[in-house]
Fold:
Amino acid sequence: MKPDGPVLIALGANLPSRLGGPRETLAAALDDLAARGVRTVARSRWYRTPPWPPSDQPWYVNAVACVATDLDPAALLAVLHAVEHDLGRARTVPNAARPVDLDLIAHGTHVMEGNITVPHPRLQERAFVLLPLRDVAPGWVDPRSGRPVDDLVAALPADDVAACEVIEQA
Structure:
């Protein structure tokens, strides 16, 4: 399935892995994806963000990558989960601290509900996704709501946006 628009993956980590800190692990995740045929076209800046939902966990490093792939959403999600597993992620409880988290945010203009939901069902609530998404796809429009990314960012609580700090340029 050739996507008819950007394929966007959110990257996050707040624990070290066997490869080093969160940024090193996330960079390795992008390399691992490329080795599996999912090539990074663009990556946002790295952001330092508070855990969601709020907790006493370490803060996260987040980014969004625009990737090139012919994989359909289900096959791409399977690859994302395989990369997470290979980098030491063990799925325990929801929102647990983790060495790597890869989420399929959008697959072109494809809208899918059910076991796999694209666009990601909670992206409009998350500054740590929308700010880096806007870096790599400033003209992106949510195919479900029809709202441009700038409108989604403007609707976020100001404190959520202010808490996201750029820590390194793309």
User: Anything to note?
Assistant: The mean pLDDT is 93. Strands lie at 7-13, 39-43, 46-49, 60-68, 101-107, 165-168. The chain is about 30% helix and 20% strand.
